[in-house]
Specification:
The structure holds two protein chains of two kinds.
Chain A lengths: L2 H13 L22 E3 L5 E3 L8 E6 L3
Chain B lengths: L1 H6 L1 H5 L4 E6 L5 H9 L6 E3 L12 E5 L5 E4 L3 H8 L16 H12 L5 H14 L4 H15 L8 H15 L4 H10 L13 H10 L13 H4 L30 E8 L2 E2 L4 E10 L5 E4 L5 E5 L6 E2 L3 E4 L6 E2 L3 E8 L8 E13 L4 E15 L2
Parallel strand pairs in B: 1-2, 6-15
Antiparallel strand pairs in B: 3-4, 5-7, 7-13, 8-12, 8-14, 9-11, 9-14, 10-13, 14-15
The chains are: A alpha+beta, B alpha+beta.
Chain lengths: 65, 377
């Protein structure tokens, strides 16, 4: 799926009226579902990690500094 | 992170693994430049507000096809096992809810216009009034204030207010290193764990050398963000060569140039060090602009007895154009003496060449100022 496709999937999530949770660090425990948080991509379009369902994902939480 | 990128390139090409990122930065365009430099093209989301709640970076997560977190900061063996594993049964997602106004603030911050930042600031400010120990709202208020400071919607004091809000958040949760980094980013060298954006010039050079175009940064890293950790400096130089020791230059009574000062951290304890940011802007209301034909902006500092600044004189050259409108920035570090302190200021003055479109006059002017410094807790 392209970034554009992923963004479209995220829009579907936001459009569905689901309110993304405010997860907190507890959300990142092994065995829990990753929170359905919709965030802007660096290019501006919305995306949720939920858009990667059905694929194995390595997610990097980082800063460039 | 680039290490994982290289190790997983083949897995990505085979379609066995997808990479994505979430960046925890105030200025996300810098992450775009970083990604371009490192030639990493996977999708990266921006979480400047720290909605994810992580306290440190970097964190690597392995998430399976059902959206379940399977590993945190895995080694190569854990990645191998993850790739061969079927999706697992999951504990439900963490579903803490938050009041609708805060949700609105997040939406406006992410998807609204620049003018919506006023409402974002208002919402987080109100949340803090209702609940002063709401640390995440204090941090997010700081993020929104700094974002507004970097926009044409800026209000005087926004940068200082953002530092104050971040400090409030950190006082409530001193273990939150993402929040701590936000202050250190703009703060003094003594507090820095590393230089934050010293890689930017190299990234630009290397992207250009391979024929690319570096990502334009709407907010250039400031001196604080390039500065290396280290000592305070060699002490205050002797005040020889003061440019207007007798105060003979006419004062800028018309307000051709506006000054905003920010002190990071917001409060200083005895013996502490702070980084001071001065921003000089031509006053748009009277259509003032810099005159670059003679010289640049000079700042001279007169710290109180016992206080040290790392340099007393600062010189900012203008661009190679006869006139210009840019914001001219000066940064310096100050160390206050040990022992009891009271709120005080750092006096100084700026000398500059300015013109006014309305009257068509160009003048050399002096502006005296005192940078307010808060002390104690």
């Amino acid at each position: 799926m392209t970034i554009r496709g992923l963004a479209a999937a995220a829009l579907l999530i936001t459009g569905s009226g689901l309110v993304p949770p405010a997860p907190g660090a507890a959300a990142l425990e092994v065995g829990r579902k990753f929170p359905q948080l919709v965030l802007p991509l660096l290019e501006g379009e919305p995306l949720s990690v939920g858009a990667f369902r059905g694929r194995k994902l390595m997610l990097q939480v980082f800063a460039s500094w | 992170m680039p290490g994982w990128h290289e190790k997983t390139a083949e897995l990505q090409a085979q379609g066995r693994l997808q990479l994505a990122g979430i960046v925890q930065e105030q200025h996300p365009e810098r992450a775009r430049l970083f990604m371009l430099w490192k030639q990493m093209s996977w999708p990266v989301m921006v979480d400047s507000l720290n909605l994810l709640g992580v306290e440190v970076v970097p964190i690597t997560l392995l998430i399976d096809e059902a959206g379940v977190v399977q590993a945190v900061n895995p080694d190569a063996g854990a990645l191998e096992r993850f790739l061969g594993r079927e999706p697992a049964e999951a504990e439900p997602a963490f579903t803490a809810t938050r009041p609708e106004p805060l949700k609105q603030a997040e939406d406006l911050f992410h998807w609204g216009s620049r003018s919506d930042l006023h409402r974002v600031v208002e919402i987080y400010g109100s949340a803090l009034e209702r609940q002063p120990d709401d640390a995440p709202s204090a941090f997010r208020l700081g993020v929104a204030l700094r974002r507004r400071y970097d926009s044409p919607e800026r209000r005087e004091g926004d940068f200082q207010a953002s530092v104050r809000a971040w400090q409030q958040a950190l006082d409530l949760n001193p273990n939150q290193y993402i929040w701590r980094r936000r202050i250190q980013q703009y703060g003094p060298r003594l507090d820095k764990p590393y230089p934050f954006y010293d890689w930017v010039p190299r990234a630009r050079r290397e992207i250009a050398e391979r024929g690319g175009t570096p990502v334009a940064l709407p907010v250039e890293p400031s001196g604080a963000e390039f500065a290396s950790p280290g000592d305070f400096g060699t002490g205050s130089p002797a005040p020889a060569g003061e440019p207007d020791a007798e105060g003979r230059i006419h004062r800028d009574e018309k307000g051709f140039v506006l000054l905003e000062s920010t002190v990071v951290p917001d409060r200083l304890e005895p013996g502490g060090t702070a980084r001071v940011h001065l921003a000089f802007r031509p006053n748009a209301e009277i259509q003032a602009h810099w005159n670059n034909e003679v010289g640049g902006l000079v700042v001279w500092l007169r710290p109180p007895d016992g206080w040290q600044v790392d340099a007393r004189v600062h010189d900012v050259a203008g661009p190679p154009a006869p006139v210009s409108l840019e914001t001219r920035r000066v940064e310096f570090e100050v160390r206050v003496p040990g022992g009891p302190l009271r709120d005080e200021g750092i006096p100084g003055y700026a000398l500059y060449y300015v013109c006014e479109d309305v009257g068509g006059t160009c003048l050399y002017r002096r502006r005296d100022f005192v940078v307010p410094v808060r002390t104690g807790r």
